[in-house]
Amino acid sequence: MKKEINVKPGFSQPTERIKKLKAAILDTTPRIEVERARLITESYKKTEALPTVLRHAKGFEKILSELPVVIRDNELIVGTATIDSRSAQIFPEFGPQGLKDEFDTVSTRSADPFAISEEVKTELKDIFKYWEGKTTSEYASSLMDEDTRKAYDAGVFTVGNYHQGGVGHLAVNYEKILQKGIRGVISEIIAAIKNADQTDPSWIEKEQFYRAALITLKAVVNFANRYAQKAKELAEYSNDAKRKAELLKISEICSHVPEYPARNFYEALQSFWFIQLVIQIEASGHSISPGRFDQYMIPFYENDDTLTQEEAQELLDCLFVKFNDLNKLRDIVTATAFAGYQLWQNVNCGGQTKDGKDATNAISYMEIESMAHVMMAMPSLSIRVWNGTPNAFLLKACELSRLGGGQPAFYNDEEIITAKVNRGETLEDARNYAIVGCVEPASQGKENSWCDAALFNLPKVLEIAMNNGRLNGKDFGPKTGEFKDFKSFDEFLKAYVEQMKFCVSLLVRADNAVDYAHRKYGQLAFVSTLVDDCISKGETIDHGGAHYNFTGPQGIGSANIGNALMVVKKLVFDSKTLSMKQLKEAMDHNFGRSESAVPAAKADKDEAYDAIAQAVKKVLGEDESLDLDNLKLNHDDTTKSLDDNSNVYAKIHEQVMNVDKYGNDLNEVDELTRIGSRVYCEELENYKTPRGGIFNAGLYPVSGNVLFGSYIGATPDGRYDKETIADGVSPTRGTDTNGPTAAANSVAKLDHFIASNGTLYNMKFSPSAVAGDGGLRRFAALIRGFFDKKGGHVQFNVIDRQTLLDAQAHPEQHKDLIVRVAGYSAQFIALDKSVQDDIIARTEFDNF
Amino acid sequence: MGNIDYDKKACVFNIQRYSIHDGPGIRTIVFIKGCPLRCKWCFNPESQDPRPTKDFGSMMSVADVYKQIKKDEVIYRRSGGGITFSGGEALTQPDFVEELIKVCNANGWTTAVETEGYISERTITRIIPKLDYVLLDIKAIPEDVHRRGTGVSNHRILKNALLINQLAKNVVVRVPVIPTFNYSKKQINYICEFSKYLNNVNTLHLLPYMTVGRKKYKKLGRKYEMGDIAPLSEDDLLPLKEIVEEHGFNCVLGG
């Protein structure tokens, strides 16, 4: 029976239960729990003679059979990794997560504190001793050659994400569990074993994988049964008749799923959650993304006559809150950069079905409603948009965006599907892409895209090209000529391309080292059973078992490259206003900006700046690759001397800033930005991954643009020494001054198709600019227009009062902020203070 | 439709993309220099003189403007938007506007004009029927009040308003609400009463007084006659909105 979709404006209120569940999570101070680390270590100590895949499976089995089983008050969807809500287990097999140095400070730090008891400290210290020299992290380090290390340390790129922890970044085949149950998967494995040629030499390893997979699958069933038992016990003790009934129902459901196929919507949600949870207990990789949730959930909703729409919505809300029950410990610096306990569990909705029809369904709308009800850090919501997306659905998504939480993000099927087909996926698989993590599209249940494999610093490569291959003053890349000696723009561009080739080759070596470490020590059997074709091939995803394999490192700073190339072309070669020598000199003197130019607040600012720089560095780079003292030292040096010629250099800076900038719909500079970022993407295509796929570039930043800026001196685009570089494919902050349509047009001129691991474009709006029905329609039209021009992704900040205040205090950083004034819209910072004040007052009113 | 004269020129002082309050959808406004009125509160005083000055306005051909406005063509299509002619007073350059209207029609973009109505009957009969939307300024009904605020009598404007009402496909009346001029229930009441004679009008926009022009007067060597009067907020206009609505009109604040 097909259920009707009733589209209404606005959002309903969440139920009391949802409010309580949410409050319970927000009120808890997370703590570090030791059980997982203890159990896996005990298991590993007993399995030293076994191959990794079996050792990890046995560890997982032990964890799931002994991890405390906890059902929280008011919960309808159950299952947790920790005794306390939002607490974190430790994954010592991937590395110590920065904890070694932070045992005594982790509970009092300002960002994402975790309480830790003395007993846990003592026990973890002991556990870490066992793991010394045995982690994927240490093994990967040992595989990197000297040149690769140099580039990594100097911030040409970082592969820290998978170097420090698990890989994650998957949208697995949840549908299989919902439809067939774990028993179905077990049957699949048994069939594969029966069909295998046991005389083939590869059989030995295959058999180990199958054995490991069966252990893990049974462990998950056992885990769910422990919940069934627990719920039954709690029901016995409950005096509240209503809760008692709920607990008995939970018990019944957990004894059925995920072992058997789900029979209704409630069971499907619970089955999904067990899978989502145990994948994140198996390993520490984040961005375990539900993906196309509306597609695999819809049959269970439509065929369910036991629930009202309101009850179904509440259950979904329960799940959306539950995503926030999970947590991950990060070291102080990382936590500072990514405060808010984020795991990037990305839920999608809308788009196209495998056979190319509109996929929007009742669950798609319910997901949006749940986001509005829950408004928490997780999950992330991704809206897939194509020409056939119902406008009512897009408007609903815009309505959510307008609430100001920065959710959802919008993706363009018309671009992404083509891009994935170009990477060798079938049309059907490409249409079935899910957004994973931040912005990365991966064919659901079939792809191990390693889509956050590295951050790559595009302007750093330009810097190397400007210095005849020298990296921070030392010989490094090929000799492509001194900056001052280039006789034509094309010569300079060619040098950039040459250095790009060299740096990309090093990036590939670094990623392959990390890849190999996971292949050797990170073999994950359970999650592999949910990614095609691991079972038929008899291999884990780490071994290349997935149907599609990629390594997806993302380039950052496209706008800086385009703007820099434009300045060199215009000022040096076209108008001959400057010589290469003059430009180089001005950059070497930081365009005349010195310590005196940055007044009193500098010390604090530097401190804050360094904290962020370190933070991001930590997220991305492993501890030992940190050379912060050196970084700090360089920083001080460059800002120390007040140069006599600073006026001359400041003048050059003015000229540089007057050259057309990317983000204003000006063809020449937009084209150079396209060329500058394409070079990176094209070069990567030439390389293969150890898992049998190819490298697949993205152009998005996470938050690496802040860190990467700190590694680069002044650049020809007018960027000062150590200044942040542009995020994703967005224009450099404050240089897109012709309004949102012009900026979006520029962004759409890049080749999003070849950046097939995803692009990211941030836009800002004041709430009043998108207020009312007209505002909502214009909002949707902007998205459609950008996607007509083949942009890949866009997300919105609907600006709040605080930002406007900040814009008043720091106008130079908010040049692109458009607000509504009276009979027209205007650039906020261009307005008189009194008008600004007026708008700030008004915004509060506009803020829903 | 006839051939388009792409070489026709006028002095344009701004082309603003992503305009969202000057007609339906997302629009681009072409600001044309020259205005016969001298409103004391004008926040673009440098746009009154029809000639280009050193740093304000330049002679642009229809082709030049076309090149700029077509950049957002996809957005017009998706939002039902198009081009709005404003000024100054755009209709002081009817030949230029007419050619651009032809360009817009050929591209399927909607057209709108913001006018204060102080133009010849001939221009109105020629241009207004070709536009999709007219945003008509009516600032005050009593002649002496109008003359004091804008430097001209409103007889011509009110007469033209009736004609525009007949000829235009869609008309909205816009009222800049200015303290010491028409920021009173009485004045707004008059405007509403008058607007009832415009049977095509069902919406009034009330635009609160702003002081963004203040500094520009000094630069032009002119006195800013509004002095230190504080800007109005949309909240200040709420009582006036009530009046407009009592008269049976939709009222948009800041529209």
From TrEMBL, chain A:
It comes from Liquorilactobacillus ghanensis DSM 18630. Coiled coil: none annotated. Keywords: Lyase, Organic radical, Transferase. The keyword Transferase applies. Residues 727-848 form the Glycine radical domain. The keyword Transferase applies. It comes from the Bacteria. Residues 16-720 form the PFL domain. It holds the Pfam family PFL-like. GO terms for cellular component: cytosol. GO terms for molecular function: lyase activity; transferase activity. InterPro entries: Form_AcTrfase_GR_CS, Gly_radical, GRE, PFL_dom. This is Formate acetyltransferase. The modification Glycine radical is found at G823. Signal peptide: none annotated.
UniProtKB/TrEMBL annotation, chain B:
SUPFAM superfamilies: Radical SAM enzymes (SSF102114). CDD domains: Radical_SAM. Keywords: 4Fe-4S, Iron, Iron-sulfur, Metal-binding, Oxidoreductase, S-adenosyl-L-methionine, Transferase. Residues 21-250 form the Radical SAM core domain. It holds the Pfam family Radical_SAM. InterPro entries: Aldolase_TIM (IPR013785), Organic_radical-activating (IPR034457), Organic_radical_activase (IPR012839), Radical_activat_CS (IPR001989), rSAM (IPR007197), rSAM_sf (IPR058240). One of its GO terms (molecular function) is 4 iron, 4 sulfur cluster binding. The keyword 4Fe-4S applies. Its cofactor is [4Fe-4S] cluster. Belongs to the organic radical-activating enzymes family. This is Formate acetyltransferase activating enzyme.
